[in-house]
Amino acid sequence: xxxxxxxxxxxxxVAAPEVFEVATAPGAARxxxxxxxxxxxxxxxxxxGASGGIEARDLAxxxxxxxxxxVHVALVEQPWRVAGRRLAPAPRTLxxxxxxxxxxxxxxxxxxxxxxFGAGRSAGARVACRTAAETGVAGVVALAFPLHPPGRPERSxxxxxxxxxxxxxxxxxxxxxxxxxSEFPKDGPTVLPVPFADHGxxxxxxxxxxxxxxxxxxxxGVGDWLTVPSTRE
Length: 233
Hints:
This protein has about 230 residues and is α/β, with parallel strands linked by helices. The chain contains 7 helices and 9 strands, in the order ββββαβααβααβαββα.
């Protein structure tokens, strides 16, 4: 494992993240870690989707908000992104690029022994669900879970979501063409609908909710679910 650390932040600045790489079978994965700024209560380890990186608006908002709620946030760039490739590989390869990262997080968590939650947006959410049992995470946060390809509800991936076998929070835009909140079973995972939001959690300018309010809803909902055990029951 090769580690790269940023320069210390000034006294009035937000602490710079720690950036390090983890060796995996498909190549190096890169982790950007923002540690909790108050007493730590959990880890949130999340990867990106198949068409974007950790700069996605929901991941960026969570990385900015959760440390103040006692959550270490580790955003994971899959090896294919680190290598500069444009197309995501097969699911098996995505899983192989994720598992060693969770092993490294577990090693770093030895002293604190905090609950670790796997997460991701879109394809990253699928990875977190598929590997939940193997990684031993306390739960999964599925951001914009791609329940089915747009316009193809018969090609459901619900079994993959339910197969996580751990408490799961699905955060889904009401305009998500990969599956609206109403398409998820009522007796399944907890679903947090985001009004007017699409698959990338973007909301139209004329919507009854602002983009900032939509992101605040996401960060508050995820923060509560991670840090208040009763919300996962």
